[in-house]
Specification:
By secondary structure, the chain is α+β, with helices and mostly antiparallel strands. The protein is built from five helices and 13 strands. The strands form four sheets. It has a five-stranded antiparallel sheet, with no helix packed on it. A hairpin with a 5-residue loop joins β3 and β4. The radius of gyration is 62 Å and the shape is rod-shaped.
Amino acid sequence: MTLQLLRDTETDKPDAATEAPAPAPPETRTCPKCSAPLEDGQDWCLNCGEAQPGGRRVSLPGKRATATVLALTTVLVGGAVAASYAALQDGSETATPPAQLAQVPTASQAAPAPTTAVPDASTAVPSDTVPSDTSAAPSDTDSLLPPDAGDTPDIPDSSGGTSSPADTTTSDTTTGTSTGTTKTDSTADTRTSTSTTKTETETEPVKIDLADGAGSLYDPFTRDTAAGDAAKAFDGDPNTSFPVTVAPGSTQIGAGLAVALPKLQGVREIELKTKTPGFKIEIYATDEEDLPPDVLDTRWAHLKDVKGVGSDTDGAETVNLGSGSTKYRHVLLWFTAPPTEGSTVRISELKLLG
């Protein structure tokens, strides 16, 4: 016979007490920024310093400071209004309008008293009554202003008549203007005439009168072999000439013609004529009374060089030396290169202009 074990279903059922769910742990507050745990009533995160929502400081942000600022502002505005009112009250009590002083006309502005009597201010006619006399005295305001040119009274003159100051002033002004214009025109004409004359004088050099024997041979190196007469360069005869001759075939002249001026003066131009064109000259000048012994002496002032003298002008040459502001005592024409043909330089005519 088989035995069957029956299961006790009562004992297999779980105990209600043991199968009851465990209670949920209490909720822990965390910082919404860094998730750090917070205690109850904690207003600030100790980890990141963030203010926590629902805290006492967050629920009343700035109310105390705002109230303080409003209270101070109200006090200051009230004090300013009170001070302004007090200042206005004091100024209105002490301020007095300035007294108006009537201007007393000077002797030159004094006018004869009007013949029409001026009514007193207390007995003045009403405003609706039009006075028949238009020459009544001006009001107080008008008396403080200077009279217009048209209202200036006539002043008796010595002849018994009357004349207006405005007319006299106008007449004097017109006369003065006319006189000044005439004087200016005359001065301008004089200056223009003087300037024109001076310009004409400067643009036309004048020939310098030289004394007899003013010209001489300048030959410090003894190069000349002709022994010519320097006076023939100043005699006014184009058929005569002053020659300077060197050895045949020489490529240099090395001698010159010195001219003594009557006094210290400026030289602006040199005019010469030659029968042997094509030579070269160097022009020097000195303010010494005696000629320097050598052309290389520093007392000679070099003025100008001229090549091919008279080659393109049929033997005539004009040398411009400037304004002539510097004054000299001697002028030297130093011949360097010989003419186109031969070894003789001839000066037919020579003029110095200052």
